[in-house]
Amino acid sequence: MTNRPHLTKWNPTNPVDVRKNTNKLLEMVENGVVDKYTVILMCVKWMSEDEVTEMMRVNELFKEDEEDDAD
User: Fold this and answer.
1) pLDDT of the chain along its 71 residues, tens only?
2) 46 lies in which domain range?
3) Is residue 65 part of a domain?
4) 3-class DSSP state for residue 51?
């Protein structure tokens, strides 16, 4: 896994923080308020199977032979 997801760091001086709650959640993980595994479970349970599949494709998490089975 050489590619890392693009994460925009929270900027408290930015008046138009379009990722306010995303950044808040990431900050909570960084500060140990919530466990990474818990956040992963919350996200994948919320997302549809198609969204999970697309996220895995975009982040190149499928092996070449698995890609065909994802459809």
Assistant:
1) 445 555 556 566 665 678 889 999 999 999 999 999 999 999 999 999 999 999 999 999 998 777 656 66
2) 20-70
3) yes
4) helix
CA dihedral (40, 43, 47, 52) positive or negative = negative
The count of other CB atoms within 10 Å of the CB of residue 27 is: 12
> Sign of the CA dihedral 31, 33, 36, 41?
negative
**pTM of the shown model:** 0.64
Tokens coding 69: 């089975």
CB proximity list for 14: less than 8 A, separation 6 or greater: none
Domain assignment present for residue 42? The answer is yes
As for how many domains the chain has, the answer is: 1
The number of beta carbons lying within 10 Å of the beta carbon of residue 26 is 16
Q: Evaluate whether residue 26 is within a structural domain.
A: yes
d(C-alpha 27, C-alpha 33), whole Å: 9
